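Here is one chain, start to finish.
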Amino acid sequence: MVGTVLAALVLSGLFSRAVGAQPSAVQAQLSDLGQFPLLLPAAQGTLVAADDRLSPVRFSQPSLTWMRDQVSARYGSDRLVEHWRAYQVDNGPNYVDIIVNEQIWSLLNYFERYAFVSQFGTAAEDYGYSVRVFHTGDVAAVNDVRANRRASEGTSRSASRIFSSRAGVVLRGGHFCDFSQAAGQLSPSVVAKLPCTIVLDDASSSRIRRPNLSPSPF
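Its structure:
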């Protein structure tokens, strides 16, 4: 019966580690791509670590390089994770944006994507960070919008809004934790008790056939 309930939660696209947990303020904030856009501008936050900005003399915090390599080996491609970026925001949540290869991501089924988000999210939460997942098509969309904005300099604000509305950026997955309950203490015992939520975009579930979720007679 427990397995049946868990399967139903996974297939719904929403699984909370803490029983009865509701979507948190962190999830609501980081799902708002207007407030926290992909490729966050420097004026809105600080890029504290990235896959291409690792220090040769000290351990970067957070570091997801080991997890990236482990996941790449598990899925048989070192191109699955293209980039990751860790941000700190004044009076806001700390989070990591992971960029996956769009073509490879499209080959993963719902459960593989869920496991991917869970693995990266668990690694990032040890540092006090939530995780968002996008793919390379979303990055291309952001770059197109920025190019259009530069080309439209001198035009009306309404034109800029039109370009912005065509961004086409979608949050592919997320692992959101309410670190306010940790009171600054990120020990393993404290982190394990935090309410965290994993979400996937609605399109993910369409790639697999839903199993029969009726209770087992055994």
